[in-house]
Amino acid sequence: MRMSAARAQPTNGSGDLDPILRACAGALLGALPLLYTMEMWWYARAVSEPVLLGMMAVAGGVVVLSILFGGFRRGRVTHLGIDTLIVFGIGITISAVTLVVVGRIHPGQVPLSAAARMIALEAIPCAIGAALAMTQFRPRDGDTKNVDRRIGRLSQDRQKVLATLVGAVFFAFNVAPTDEPRMMAMEAEPVHFPLIVVFSLLVSYVIVFEADFADRPKGYTTGALGNPFAETLVSYVLSLGVSYAFLAGFGHLSPETPLYTQITTTVTLGYVTTIGGSAGRVLVAG
Q: Per residue in 132-146, is it b (16+ CB within 10 Å) or e — as a string?
């Protein structure tokens, strides 16, 4: 009994360290496949500074939303900014340490600019994974009195939209850098793409409304997206938008790409982003 009581009330130092350790674990669990992905290393060397900065800005928005949904330290709003900087610091640290340990960055051999690009690009999914782990995977019996979830002041419709974007972006980062979506779209028959659309919608509906992962909050069925079918359809469209944006950002699509290829590749990756958006609505908004 004494041991459990001591465990339930950690010292201030331990209490401060626990979310940091969770964030480090989340960074590795969420981004380890990308840290081992060859396309990410190549793309980091070739990407322009504006595109890389744009991706980091998108990641910053996702990190802030994740912290807002999960809750930041109650008190001054500046805590949100501090928590965001901590998450990005963890993402950069995990990215740099992993790339050095596995031998992708050799100090003194890899140019500093190339190393910085690789670390920065890989830090993006690391930071998103860290944010989700630090905010969403608190101990269930932990103290939530000092948590500020002011995102809850938004309407359910807006929360659903933002949660969809958070999940879709996180999942997109794990697949969009690779050549597989483009290759799959090229090799698939035309009949496959309507099937992908239908299956994406079906899986999204089942994950959110039938799998019973989490209790939906009060008022979940209010607003324009209160109907499950409306929520599923709008979330799918948003997920397709994320899919196209990431394919274009990683150089797989451009305005010169044939329209048919743009559509089919977006639909192919859209299956992944749709599942991510559904997970976001269950995990983040639920």
A: bbbbebbeeeeeeee
Q: In this structure, are 140 and 32 located in the same domain?
A: yes
Cα–Cα distance measured from residue 11 to residue 56, given in angstroms and rounded to the nearest whole number: 35
pLDDT band at 193 (very low <50, low <70, confident <90, very high): very high
Q: Per-residue pLDDT tens for 196-252?
A: 999 999 999 999 888 866 667 676 777 788 889 999 999 999 999 999 999 998 889
Q: Of 135, 152, 169, which residue is a domain's last?
A: 152
CA distance to 112, 135, 213, per residue, from 56 (Å) = 19, 20, 31
Report d(CA 113, CA 95) in Å as an integer. 15
Contact 81, 89 (CB under 8 A): no
Burial of 235 (0-12, 13-18, 19+ CB in 10 A): buried
Q: What is the pTM of this model?
A: 0.75
